[in-house]
Design brief:
Ubiquitin-like (UB roll), Rossmann fold, three-stranded mixed beta sheet, 6 helices, 31% helix, 26% strand
């Protein structure tokens, strides 16, 4: 029995020693991991504050995707000061500020580490039409001391002001000067649109897509009369009536009439009526003969 007890105690002492050594190894490993992580974090922090991670000038910004807007025009809208630490710059905020520009549809911004800089990729809004909006003269009002409004009549009451801009394929209106001032050599679209944007915005994307696929050239779109949309085309004036979501069908019928000038004299056509695309009508100019008074 004494031998058995002695062996058991020896085994227990050996196990305790092994557990103690394992515990010490875990502590040493944990300490090394802590030292390694602290050293790595300190090294990264030291590298981050070095002068090489500084945006020094606009030349450190790489811009791509621009076709109509110059790089200088894009850089001019960036809210950045130089020099600036690359890590203090928020790419997301810069991208959002770029998308607020009417000429830019999408923008992505990312940091570049070697060498330090920014990479900006944009998607421009492509103008497809010149938009003219006649602003009716309105009275000017100002608040008086008692809170009421006083109306002041402007001196040019009888005049209308025309606002000119550009439209993209989705109907977004862009100020003309945003393009012309930054890119004077910009070639403007040949298509012209007249009317209030809030009236034709629901139908614009659908109409433009249909017109872009049509074989009949359209020069002008007149939305001024809400009950009669008028197209100025190579066939002459085309009346479409009240704008609706049947516009693509009306444009298809117009394309089927592209050979009309070979059958009728274009100068004798007053307008083409496609208000009902199932029954297209051609209104001819009716000449009235002038009767000279007979002298006795």
């Amino acid at each position: 029995m004494a031998g058995i007890i002695s062996v058991s105690r020896t085994n227990l002492e050996g196990r305790r020693l092994k557990l103690r050594k394992k515990r010490q190894m875990r502590i040493i490993q944990a300490m090394w991991r802590t030292f390694a992580i602290t050293g790595l974090a300190g090294g990264l922090l030291w590298m981050a504050i070095q002068p090489i991670w500084v945006l020094k000038a606009p030349k450190d910004i790489v811009i791509s995707g621009n076709q109509r807007l110059s790089k200088q025009a894009i850089q001019s809208v960036l809210v950045l000061s130089y020099p600036q630490s690359l890590w203090r710059i928020e790419p997301f905020r810069i991208a959002e500020s770029l998308k607020q520009q009417p000429t830019i549809a999408q923008a992505t911004v990312s940091r570049r580490l070697f060498p330090a800089g920014l990479i900006i990729h944009i998607k421009e809004r492509v103008p497809v039409a010149i938009a003219e909006c006649a602003l009716a003269p309105t009275n000017l009002s100002k608040a008086s001391k008692d809170g009421s409004k006083q109306v002041l009549a402007p001196s040019d009451t009888g005049k209308k002001k025309v606002s000119v801009g550009l439209l993209d394929a989705s109907g977004v209106w862009m100020p003309l000067e945003k393009y012309t001032l930054r890119n004077p050599a910009l070639q403007l679209p040949s298509l012209k649109v007249i009317g209030l944007p809030e009236q034709y915005r629901p139908y614009w994307a659908q109409l433009y897509q249909a017109l872009s696929q049509s074989s009949v050239k359209v020069i002008e779109i007149d939305w001024q009369d809400p009950t009669n949309l008028i197209l100025k085309t190579e066939l002459g004036k085309v009346y479409l009536g009240t704008p609706s979501f049947h516009l693509p069908e009306q444009i298809r019928v117009m394309a089927q009439m592209r050979h009309l000038p070979a059958q009728l004299n274009p100068s004798q056509i007053e307008y083409i009526d496609l208000k009902n695309p199932e029954f297209p009508l051609v209104q001819m100019i009716q000449k009235q003969q002038e009767l000279n008074p007979q002298t006795p």
